[in-house]
Amino acid sequence: MEELRMTKPPVIDLDGVTFGYTQTPVIEDISISVAGGEYVAVVGPNGSGKSTLMKLSLGLLSPDDGNARLFGNPAASFDDGQRIGYVAQHASATKAMPITVREVVKMGRFPHVGFGSLSATDWEIVDRALERVGMSAFADRRITQLSGGQRQRAFIARALAGEAELLVLDEPTVGVDAESVVSFYELLDQLSADGITILLIEHDLNAVTDHVNRVICLNRTVYFDGPTETFVQSDALDRAFGAVSVQ
Amino acid sequence: MIPSTLYTGVLYGLLELWYWVMTQTWKLTGLAMISPEYTFMHRAILVGLCIGVMAPVIGTFLVHRQLALIGDALAHTAFAGVAVGLFLNGVFTIGVSPYLTAVVVAVIAALSIELISETTDAYNDVSMAIVLSTGFALGSTLISLNAGGLAVGINQYLFGNLSTVSADNAVILLVLFAIIVVTVAITRNQLLYVTFDETAAAVAGFSVTWYNRIMVMLTALVVVGAMQIMGVILVAAMLVVPVAGATQLSRSFRESIFVSIALAELAVLLGIGLAYYAEATAGGVIVLVAVALYGCAVAIGKLLDRLGPESSPTVAPIQAEDDTTAD
Fold first, then answer.
1. CB proximity under 8 Å: B 174-213 to A
2. In which domain, by residue range, is A12 found?
3. Exposed end of chain B (fewer CB within 10 Å): N or C?
């Protein structure tokens, strides 16, 4: 078993990645590797390239230089959407689209069913995902009627319905009230304990340091990459944030 | 103009079947507007019913992508397509249906809107404005080049006309209808995902670029199909107004599609009926009825919100993985 784990490629593997939307790189020569089951946070000031790093990791952008691999395959051509769940800053979304929580969670099954319809088993998985995040009672509510915290739970349920191995969250607690943030992180802790790999892009440092196992501190380049306890004691944050005022 | 193959035989057969259905309905109801001597009304109603399905179905995806005005942009380019057709007919006397040239030009324009957005980082409404103006400019230029020959028939395309829906045009519409309905039925999952959350859809492995292109091409087809009785100027309304009404009344996406079809069909049938008896332009009357229905939908939606405040359920505790399978 141990041997098997050793031979598994990293879930996310960036090797010397550089990327810029213009001539100036937003991300410069970054090499990080995230193994299966890790619970990692990427922190950094605004404009530090956190979201760009996430997009490169998921193959939504292609590096100008270096290699980005996802589950051992080139990230840009990776199309096995079943293995990834994605949660964005939806809490503050105001899109007035009539769509129920169950319909949103159902989308998690779309990579599995393709052009087909959901089978009874698919619907069971959807209902189980809703139950898991405590949102069954809200299944037939319009997603716009939910609070920010409830909405984010629904999006986690969508990732669970997809049976994702990797969960990527881009500042998921923006616009979510403090109480809901606490239970939201409890949910992430639980998922991490179940073995799901979690990559969390986060602005709220306190929330991060209480939960994740590993922190990557970013501001164009990597300022810190290591266990959370070491990060708390280091001056990486000051250096990373200080770099902004210098720029 | 349409090659006589088995398929076209079937399509014209369907049209004959529709005449028969309308005649039977006339025998039952005695409605003068569908009497057997008015086969143009039979065709107009058939075209209207098809528009009442395809316009709100496509419109639902557009409205929730905040692309409500793309229909307007494509209608103006479809007008250019009509002008191209009339121009070719006038100059080369080749007898091509202006609706077919409209389909071609509108689809090219639809792809241009996407390409301009993709390659220049412009907002979608900027690319729409560019394509809309280009379309109308091209149309008006071609018409002015040969004013005597072209200006005559142009009103029917601008404002739509019930009586000019020929059998050939009805058959073209049936083909467009089939293409649209089948494409949406096949790609409904992907279109919904891309509409709701583009980034998550891309992460899920769906090609957002391609589904966006499919969406705008289908819009072009709807616009050309609906243009026959709605006219260039009002065609976009059918993509937007019933959907806006349905959004007020529906809870789920699925429900909103069915409600928008119901509202659109009601608008089309009442509109054609009223236009016939009032001898008014059908496109205008249909849109006025659709807007009135939208007003009712807003009022009913507000009333329902007030009458039935839903009790707020509480969020259940988070369950460990095994808990959910245990019971």
1. 186-187, 189-190, 192-193, 195-197, 199-200, 202-206
2. 1-79+213-247
3. C
> Containing domain of residue B82, as a range?
6-233
Q: A127 and A182: one domain?
A: yes
Chain A contact present for B320, CB below 8 A: yes
- Examine residue B110 and state whether it is found in any structural domain, yes or no: yes
Which chain B residue is nearest to residue A57, measuring alpha carbons?
Answer: B203
**Cβ-based contacts of A142 with chain B (< 8 Å):** 251-252
- Note whether A200 and A110 are same-domain residues: yes
The CATH number for A44's domain is 3.40.50.300
pLDDT of B4 = 58
- Interchain contact, A86 vs B204, CB within 8 Å: yes
**Does B11 reside within a domain?**
yes
Q: Which pLDDT tens digit goes with each residue over A147-161?
A: 888 888 899 999 999
Test mutation, B189, B192, B196, chain A, max A CBs within 10 A: B189
Give the tens place of pLDDT for each residue, B161-180.
877 788 888 888 899 999 99
Give a three-class secondary structure readout of chain A: CHHHHHHCCCCEEEEEEEECCCCCCCEEEEEEEECCCCEEEEECCCCCCHHHHHHHHHCCCCCCEEEEEECCEEHHHCCCHHHEEEECCCCCCCCCCCCEHHHHHHHHHHHHHCCCCCCHHHHHHHHHHHHHCCCHHHCCCEHHHCCHHHHHHHHHHHHHHCCCCEEEEECCCCCCCHHHHHHHHHHHHHHHHCCCEEEEECCCHHHHHHHCCEEEEEECEEEEEEEHHHHHHCCHHHHHHHHHHHC
Give the total number of structural domains in chain A: 2
Task: Give A-chain residues touching B251 at CB under 8 angstroms.
Answer: 98, 100, 140-142
ipTM above 0.90, yes or no: no
B313 touches chain A (CB under 8 A): yes
In a shared domain, residues A161 and A207: yes
The structural domain count of chain B equals: 1
